[in-house]
Each structure stands twice: as C-alpha cells, then as structure tokens.
Write a structure and sequence with these properties.
The structure holds 2 protein chains of 2 kinds.
Chain A: E1 3-14, E2 17-28, E3 32-37, H1 43-51, E4 58-63, E5 73-75, H2 80-83, H3 89-94, H4 109-122, H5 137-151, E6 155-159, H6 167-183, E7 187-191, H7 195-201, E8 204-208, E9 214-218, H8 219-223, H9 226-232, H10 239-252
Parallel strand pairs in A: 3-7, 3-8, 5-6, 6-7
Antiparallel strand pairs in A: 1-2, 1-4, 8-9
Chain B: H1 10-35, H2 39-58, H3 63-83, H4 89-112, H5 116-123, H6 131-150, H7 152-160, H8 162-167, H9 172-194, H10 199-213, H11 217-242, H12 246-269
Helix pairs in contact in B: 1-6, 1-9, 1-10, 1-11, 2-3, 2-4, 2-5, 2-9, 2-10, 3-4, 3-9, 5-9, 6-9, 10-11, 10-12, 11-12
Classes of the chains: A alpha/beta, B mainly alpha.
Chain lengths: 254, 270
C-alpha cells in the first residue's frame, strides 16, 4: 500500500539544538497516529516540519498517494488574536478553501458547497451566521476543524485539539475525529498530551522523548513497549511489561 | 460661517480630494493592522515620514518623492522586527519613531529654525497641500482599494490565522509586505493633513469602533470605511467653521464615534 506520509531519517533542530534525530515512520491511508511525549520532546517541531513551516536539517518528509503538502488539513492551537476576532463562522470555514486558489482568492459555488458539507459533517450548520468570538471553546474548535477539512484531501493534522475544552466538549471532539477517521477514511495525525485518549482512539503511536528515545508502532505494540509501559502506568503483567518495570526499577536505584 | 462656503475654496476642495481617499485606505488597512496587533506600525511610520519630510523641506526638495521611499523601506524593516520575536516589536517601534522625530527636528532646526513647515508636519494643515499631493493621493488610493479587493479573502485568512495560512500554502510574508507598503503610502499621504502625531488615529479608530458592534469581517471592513469618511468630513467641516486644528478635529470626531459605538455595544449586550 502507498504511504500518505513517510518521514525519512529526519533530524530537526530548534534554536541550534537538535530536538530529535534520525526519525523514521510511515503512515497509510486511514491511519490514526497520535504523537505523544513530554514538553520539549519535539512534537511541535515535528508538526511544523510535516506542514513545511520549518525545514528539516537532515532527511525529508515524503508525501504519497497524490497528497500535496499544502493539502494537509491543519487544526492549529488557538491564538490570542482569534479570541476577539470579528468574523462569522461562515467566513472562517470558507477560508479553508484558499489553498486551492493560485493567485486570486475568490470563492466559487463549489467552494461554498464543500464548506457547507463540511459544516454538516461536523454538526455546526446552525452556527453559520454566528460570530466566531461569541462561541464557546468547543464550538470554536469545531469551526476550525471544519475549516481544516475544507483544505484537506486525505490527511488532517491536529495540534492539541482538546486543550482547554470541558469534558463534554472533549468527548464530542474525540467522537467527531473518530468518525472522520472511520467513516470518511480520513488519515489523522494528532499531537496530544492526553495519553489515555491517545491509546484509546489511535491506531498508531509515535512517542518522542527528551532523552532521544523514540517509539513508533501500533497502539497495541506501544502499550507493551518500554516507553509505553513507563508512560501509561498501567497494570499489565505480561512478560514484556514486567521486564520493563524491573529494568526501570533497577535504573532508578541510587 | 456657512458650511457650504467651504466648497468655494480651492484648498478645501483639495483637502477633501486628498483626505477622503486617504481616510478610506487608512480604515481598510487599519482593520487588518489592528487585528494583527500591528497598529503601532502606523505610528512608527508616521514619525519616520516626519523625519523624511523635515529633511526634504530643510534642503528644499519636493517632500513626497523623498518621504515615500524612506517610509516604504522603514515599513519593511518594522515588519521584519515585529516578526522576529527576539527583539520586542513595540519597543523597537518606539525606538525608531522617536529617533526619526529627533533627527527630523534637529536637521530642520539647524537649517531654517523651527518654522511653520515643521509645525504643519507635526499637527497637519489643510493649506499646506499641493495639487501634486492630490494627484498622488487619488492614484494611490485607487491602487490600495483595487489590491485590497483582489486580495480580500487572502488578507482575511492571513489576518485571522497566520500559521494555518502558511501551512495551506498562502504566501503570508507577501501579503504582510503588501499591507505594510500600502500602509506606508497611506501614512505619508495622510500626514500632510492629519499631521505626524495624529495620522495613526486614522488607521486605528475606525477599525476599533467598527469592531465594537460588527459580527463579521465584511461588516467590520464596510463599517469602518464608511465611518472613517464620515468622521473625516465632520472633522474637516468643524475645523473650517470653528477654526479648530484640522487633524485634531478629525481625531475628536473619530473619538466621539468610538464612544458612541462602545456605548451601543454595551447597551445591546445587556
């Protein structure tokens, strides 16, 4: 099967310091990848690399299956500017279509149709005329997700999509993302701090750590891996996990 | 004094021909600048413009051809500074604007002493403008409005979310540069009437007032454009009839509008 995105021996640095080295992974159509790890482990840097906002110091990101880098549906974290931004939901969602425009940025019928369909998919048609700044955090996040879908062909990239949301809105957001992944065969890459949900929903996990250890594999494999068993604090007693625990205990002895 | 009589004077007609397009452009650009937290750039540019104009007048050069390139180049630099997070953008702007003001005043005083030219550049004047200024103003405003119309949706996207725009392949730096250059041109043209110290209000006030009540970006753009022209007209009429300084009168008209809009917003939301 052709991969949607292949990360080929990528090394990236930030302010002159190497954040991660020789990273290799590959995702296919319909995969749901969660990128987890401590603060400063390079999650954001990697995300910027995938989006082309920052270049890799070594290696490359290869897009396949007919995907262009500018066709990634990106859900960024909210900025302070947006909190009091006077714009209607419709204006925001529609702006996701601009990556299809070369020079002039005028919308046609098709753009409007796609924007409307995506709003229906996310369940926000009733918000069309509302002012963005007057919405709740969860609603705003869904508007931005609809915008991301407008520019996405096959892959969406979500940066901490549930940060700051209440438990109900968080659950809704995860359900919407799961449905996009399962019903529309949308490939999902999510950067997340919420490791429990990551393991619940994702098909693959990429774990970056400050120490430079990297795990990439299916969620199943991750749960019994060394990084996974240490990070999840679960009560698995399979041979592998017991071994990791023992090793960890010996390491942390003075 | 009869308000209608102000249309009998050539200098008043010229002031309107210069001022209405300039206030239109300033308010349109202002929406994006205010939302992007770049409003101080207008202020910085006007001080640089003052420095350039003062030097030009000290050496008896035509003001606009000197000021325009200088201010456009400064616009580039100011934008680079505010993109570079290691230097704090606001202090850098304050640094540049006070230095430019100081250089302008010093050079002008050494050549001719503090004369009316300098005072006009600082506080604005209707009579100081020339036909040359009027032609420039109309042409440049035309360009600003056409460019803003063409790039409207992209400018919206870049203003709302720079990272998303970058990721989806919009040339964010290009649009930021376009906005900065257009602002530079508007500032240089407007400061003849409004004065260095007051021109940035033409950029900030209408957008801020419109944002109080408007719910969509389009509404904000349209409202601030209309508001800006109306306030300019009221300001200049008051200045003509009551003999108040023109730039200050326009600012006060804008301030009144801002207060009204804020009150309306608070009444509506309660």
């Amino acid at each position: 099967m052709l991969s949607v995105l292949r990360c080929n021996n990528v090394t990236m640095s930030y302010d002159g310091n190497t954040v991660f080295k020789d990273l290799n992974f590959e995702i296919h159509r319909g995969d749901y990848l969660c990128i987890v790890g401590e603060n400063g482990s390079g999650k954001s840097t990697l995300m910027k690399g995938i989006l082309g906002l920052r270049s890799a110091s070594y290696g490359e990101f290869i897009f396949g299956d007919g995907l262009q880098q500018t066709e990634i549906g990106y859900l960024p974290q909210q900025t302070g500017i947006q909190k009091d931004f006077p714009a209607s939901v419709w204006e925001v969602v529609l702006s996701g279509r601009l990556n299809k425009k070369k020079f002039l940025g005028f919308y046609n019928k098709e753009d409007k149709k796609i924007a409307w369909e995506n709003m229906e998919k996310i369940g926000i048609p009733s918000l069309k005329k509302r002012c963005y700044r007057e919405l709740s955090g969860g609603q705003q996040q869904r508007v931005l997700l609809a915008r991301a879908l407008c520019s996405a062909e096959k892959l969406i990239l979500l940066d901490e999509p549930v940060v700051g949301l209440d438990p109900v809105a968080t659950a809704q957001m995860y359900t919407i993302i799961k449905n996009l992944n399962q019903n529309d065969n949308m490939t999902v890459i999510m950067v997340s701090h919420d490791i429990i949900s990551a393991v619940n929903y994702a098909s693959h996990i990429l774990h970056l750590s400050v120490s430079g250890e990297i795990f990439f594999g299916t969620t199943q494999e991750y749960q019994h891996s060394e990084l996974g068993s240490r990070f999840l604090y679960h009560n698995c007693h399979c041979d592998d996990c017991e071994k990791h625990k023992l090793k960890h205990i010996h390491q942390s002895k003075p | 004094m009869d308000i209608l009589s102000m249309f009998e004077h050539t200098f008043m007609i010229r002031a309107l021909i210069i001022g209405i397009p300039v206030s239109l452009c300033a308010s349109l650009l202002g929406v994006s600048l205010v939302l992007k937290r770049y409003s101080m750039i207008g202020d910085g540019l006007s001080h640089v413009g003052f420095g350039a104009l003062a030097i030009a007048s000290a050496f008896n050069l035509t003001p606009l051809p000197v000021a325009i390139p200088v201010v456009v180049i400064s616009a580039f630099l100011l934008l680079r500074i505010s993109e570079n997070s290691k230097i704090k953008g606001d202090s850098a702007i304050a640094l540049i604007s006070s230095s430019a003001l100081a250089i302008g005043v010093t050079v002008a005083t050494l050549r001719n002493g503090m004369n009316t030219d300098i005072s006009n550049y600082l506080f604005g004047s209707i009579v100081a403008t020339s036909d040359f200024d009027a032609i420039w103003s109309v042409c440049l405003s035309g360009i600003v409005i056409i460019l803003l119309r063409i790039f409207y949706n992209k400018i919206f996207a870049v203003t709302f979310d720079e990272n998303f725009s970058k990721a989806t392949g919009i040339k964010v730096n290009f649009y930021n540069t376009v906005i900065a250059i257009l602002t530079a041109l508007t500032v240089v043209l407007g400061m003849r009437i409004m004065g260095t110290l007051l021109i940035s209000s033409l950029i900030i006030f209408p957008a801020l007032s419109a944002m109080q009540v408007c719910k969509t970006f389009r509404q904000v753009i349209v409202t601030s454009a209309i508001l800006s022209v109306i306030c300019f007209f009221i300001g200049i009429s008051v200045s003509y009839t009551a003999g108040t300084p023109v730039g200050a009168s326009i600012v006060l008209a804008n301030l009144t509008a801002f207060v009204i809009f804020t009150v309306v917003k608070n009444i509506v939301s309660h």
